[in-house]
């Protein structure tokens, strides 16, 4: 999978992807991450990318021409990219949206917006608008990073053959069951005896019950979608 990011702060993408799962996916050639500096498409001697809002008001708005020029430049070099604008007004991102992107696209072009937002006409330049959550960030760079990280770990070969990918939270539609490791007793809290029993069928049923109970209590909104069994 190829990820392209149009951003005013390309250097911000270096360190988050320099270690861990993503770094290995990059070195093994499973993913490629390329940043494209929007400033290179800025207007005039000052390479301007934003301006005051028509109609007045506080804050600056990103002009459409630099974004259009950047999108044209990247898609000219890399045809077929699925173009995504990250914005609080987009479709709410979740695990199933990530799985859809991982399964259906060979390459993504992510547009990171700064300031108060982008000129309304930028929406016509992309295929999809995505929000990573119902909160307001100051900068525009974290949303594409979140999307890249979430999609990358779903690509075949990235996590190795981990059976737990299927069992984990959100893929199963439930929150995860409680996990324990040594010591058997920590500050008065004991590991549930069933986990020490060696009875794997009993352990499987206990984990399933715990996951259901935890989801019912903490995230009842997820219960409607949870698979039976
Ligand atoms: N999920 N932000 C984007 C500027 C902006 C506003 C409107 C385009 C259109 C966010 C989120 C988020 C803050 C990043 C505002 N760009 N983006 N930025 N939540 O809060 O995606």
Low-confidence stretches: none
Computed over alpha carbons, the radius of gyration is 22 Å
Q: Shape from CA axes?
A: elongated
The whole-number mean of residue pLDDT values reads 95
Query: Largest sheet, order of strands side by side?
Result: 2-1-6-5-7
Structural class: alpha/beta
Instruction: Report the total helices.
Output: 6
- Small molecules (ligands, ions, cofactors) in the structure: ligand 4GX
The description of the largest β-sheet is:
5 strands, parallel
Folded structure, characterized:
The protein is of the alpha/beta class and 229 residues long. It is 29% helix and 18% strand. It contains 6 helices and 9 strands; from the N terminus they run βαβββαβαββααββα. The protein has helices at residues 20-27, 64-77, 95-104, 142-152, 164-167, 200-218; strands at 2-7, 32-37, 50-51, 61-62, 82-92, 107-112, 128-131, 185-186, 189-190. The strands form 3 sheets. The protein has a 5-stranded parallel sheet with strand order 2-1-6-5-7, sandwiched between helices. The longest helix has 19 residues, at 200-218. It binds ligand 4GX. Ligand 4GX is lined by residues 86-88, 113-114, 117-118, 131-133, 135-137, 140, 143. Ligand 4GX binds at residues 86-88, 113-114, 117-118, 131-133, 135-137, 140, 143.
Short summary of the structure?
With 229 residues, the chain is of the alpha/beta class. The chain has helices at residues 20-27, 64-77, 95-104, 142-152, 164-167, 200-218; strands at residues 2-7, 32-37, 50-51, 61-62, 82-92, 107-112, 128-131, 185-186, 189-190. The two termini are 34 Å apart.
